[in-house]
Amino acid sequence: MMAYIGLRKPMIGKRTAAGSYEAPSALGKAVAMDITPNFAEATLYGDDGQAEYIKEFTDADVTLGTSTIPLNMYQTMFGHAIDTEKKSVTYGKDDENGYVGVGIVAPNIVDDNRSFDAMFLPKVKFSDPSDSFETRGDNITFKTPSISGKASAEDSGVWKETASFTTEAAAVAWISEKFGVSGSTGSTGSTGSTGV
Fold first, then answer.
1. Long-range contacts for 36-42 (Cβ within 8 Å, ≥24 apart)?
2. How far apart are CA 30 and CA 55, in angstroms?
3. Cα–Cα distance between 177 and 23 in angstroms, integer?
4. CA dihedral 145, 146, 152, 158 (to 10 degrees)
5. Amino acid 58: pLDDT
6. How do 146-151 and 99-110 pair as beta strands?
7. pLDDT at 196
8. Is 41 exposed, middle or buried (0-12, 13-18, 19+ CB in 10 A)?
9. Cα–Cα distance between 149 and 12 in angstroms, integer?
10. Average pLDDT in the 38-58 region?
11. Could you write out the three-class secondary structure of the chain?
12. 8 Å CB contact between 42 and 51
């Protein structure tokens, strides 16, 4: 487990097919992110003991807190009609939330060595955020949106990919490439589907 010291650059791209996305956009500024994998389990007992045990990934709960949700994301993520000129969103009962790819950068430090972990979830479907309002009192309280959803595996079985870089720019470039946007590459450390 890494010693994470931050969270940056939340990027969202509408999924058009397996491995294909529309150009990604920033989802405000990252506030917090939680990813909890879920597993199906089964145990077979025989001769008064455990004979077989199976544990398989089913999906992952994803919660992403952000400073704001840009207007275009209400269409990209939740299927709502937007009017960019009027800066308005129309919520319909038949609007369908779509699958998106999600990228994020998490700076970390190990033995005084700083690196930037990039993470990419290829297939996530989010639910609309809850609304929470509060009148202003003596102290100012920020209310920021938080969205929850489910991450699923691609047909290939991959549900998450990670890579570690020496610079933030290289981490962002790697995420951009996952969305199909070419960019500069940098020095990378370990890669895999079970990090971050």
1. 36/60, 36/61
2. 32
3. 11
4. 90
5. 92
6. unpaired
7. 41
8. exposed
9. 13
10. 84
11. CCCECCCEEEEEEEEEECCEECCCEECCCEEEEEEEEEEEEEEEEECCEEEEEEEEEEEEEEEEEECCCCHHHHHHCCCCEEECCCCEEECCCCCCCCEEEEEEEEEEEECCEEEEEEEEEEEEEECCCCCCCCCCCCCCCCCCCEEEEEECCCCCCCCCEEEEECCHHHHHHHHHHHCCCCCCCCCEEEEECCCC
12. no
Cα(65)–Cα(112) distance, integer angstroms: 28
In the block, tokens 């809850």 appear at 130
Encoded tokens for 85: 């000129």
Q: Tokens 């000129």, residue?
A: 85
d(CA 185, CA 178): 12
**Which residue in this structure is represented by tokens 């001769």?**
47
Model pTM score = 0.80
